[in-house]
Design brief:
Blueprint: H1 3-11, E1 13-17, H2 24-34, E2 38-42, E3 48-49, E4 52-53, E5 67-70, H3 74-84, E6 91-95, H4 101-109, E7 113-118, H5 129-140
Parallel strand pairs: 1-2, 1-5, 5-6, 6-7
Antiparallel strand pairs: 3-4
Helix pairs in contact: 3-4
Amino acid sequence: MIPEIKEVVGGKKLAIVGVSSKKMSGTIYSELKQKGYELYPVHPTRSEFDGDKCYGSVADLPNDVTAAVLALSPEAAKQVVSDAAGSGLTHLWFQQGANFSEAIAQAEAQGLKTISKKCIMMYAEPVTGIHSFHRFFVKLLGRY
């Protein structure tokens, strides 16, 4: 497993940026919460998500939150990376499914560690259901 992935999933404290009950981010939030992660939802127009206080920006997060999963559009991700500059974030996980190349380059230029083209649900233990099936094949192909 990539060291940056171990650092993110091992810390058990994550911001989920772009939370929405109608998108994958909501599913990620719910599943990670059930797995015991301490989560910080981030959305610019929500005051709470799933009963938890919602932060308007990653710049508003407590300084001890060092990792964030970005489950939003590539254009919105660039703004999140800009906002991350003065925060305590050190790791950004760009949830697979979109081309985040510009935001990733921007984050790495700022010295942030990045993870991309991977689904956090294949790494956050315990991995169950379809995610365990997917992980099996990714391991089989040597891309874990």
